[in-house]
Amino acid sequence: MGIDNVAIKTFNSSGAQSVCRANEADETKLIESQFLTKCTTEYINGSGMTHIQGNSVDVASAAPPPQTFYLPSDCDAISDVIYTGTSIESITKIEVKVGNLVVQTIKPDDIKHRNLTELGYVIAHATFSIPIIGRAKNVRNSFLQAGATTNSMSLKFTYKQVISESSADTSLCVMTHQITKTEKDFIAKNIINRVVNVSQNVDFTVPGTAAATVSSVTIDLSSVNINVSHILFKNSTGIVASKAELILGNDRTGNIPVVCLDSRLNAELFSLAANQVDGVYIIKTADSAFSTAGIPFSRLNNKKLILTGNFTGASTISVTACGTQIQTTVGGSISFSS
Q1: Whole-angstrom Cα distance, residue 226 to residue 106?
Q2: d(CA 169, CA 85)
Q3: Rounded to whole angstroms, how far apart are CA atoms 39 and 30?
């Protein structure tokens, strides 16, 4: 068992923690004034790391078989998963399952886009954070597993061959959290709706051959059904955008020079991490990253991203739509909606 329950077990209701934390209901009323107002009392949570050992993966000789990691079912919430083993380039996709339902498919560029804009770096070789549904800087927007342990989370990795790599042992480090009995009792008797951070991927292959170029591409975003706060894309080999335009329903942004979308210039004012890596662009659709004031794409029919520039045929443009969903926990089951 991990250390994520230690804080709850060692909680002292008369100690320093009790100024802002509690593990049982307290009927005492707060007295608020300029002199006496204290922080809002919240139920305490326990946090810790859990290590999950995987298989040895050899991507040099051939594409290895898929590998599934089953995240701990005895924890109440999960806010981060760190993978160690192969490089991002050796991964074709990661399927995030809750129970038997695939709730998110993560592509390598999604990892790069989100880690660069949320963490300020990628670490693209052998250790990196996976932007799972519910990855968050605190437990407020994390994945809530309490109340539905039969729907525990698992991650299925699909690999491809990378000749330049050697075999490596794989593992996950999972940031887990425990909550109090008071909260669990409430969850068992009520419908719980929480906001979780999430992203969805759209890959677009530029038509034509490597010898030909096109000046404009239209990327269909109809598969995106989350509440979108921002859209990320990146210039890469064979892809040089000079303008971008987002069409949503009957509305459109008009052509925006990509220099205005450069994450090096506008990340911090959007509650994202500043970085100095060229070529990652942000189209903002809310007041801040992962804001609940984003655009509910599930309610729109016409959703397109038009990029104008020089594009080499057969190259792939990877788009990451980021935002929020509502996680609903009721009767031992978990569901997600926009």
Answers
A1: 15
A2: 6
A3: 10
Characterise 249 by phi-psi region: left (phi > 0), alpha (psi -120 to 50), beta (else). Answer: left
Cα 284 from Cα 222, distance rounded (Å):
18
All structural domains of the chain:
46-188 (2.70.9.10), 199-325 (2.70.9.20)
- What does the buried/exposed string (b/e) look like for 289-301 if buried means 16 or more CB atoms within 10 Å of the residue's CB? bbbeebbebeebe
Mapping DSSP to helix (H, G, I), strand (E, B) and coil, where does residue 140 land?
helix
Whole-angstrom distance between the N-terminal and C-terminal Cα of the chain?
35
Beta bridge partners of 333: 330
- Which tokens belong to 181? 């009995």
pTM of the model: 0.90
Contact 338, 326 (CB under 8 A): yes
How many CA atoms are closer than 13 Å to the CA of 156, on its beta-carbon side? 13
Question: What are 100-154's pLDDT values in tens digits?
Answer: 999 999 999 999 999 999 998 877 779 999 999 999 988 899 999 998 877 899 9
Helical (H) or strand (E) element with 176: strand 168-178
Structure tokens of 101?
């339902």
The 10s digit of each residue's pLDDT in 286-323 is 999 999 999 999 999 999 999 998 888 888 899 999 99
CA-CA distance, 223 to 251, in Å (whole number)? Answer: 18
DSSP string over 214-275: EEEEEEE-TT--SEEEEEEEE--TTEEEEEEEEEETTEE---EEGGGGBHHHHSGGGTS---
3-class secondary structure for 20-68?
CEECCCCCCCCCCCCCCCCCCCEECCEEEEEEEEEEEECCCCCCCCCEE
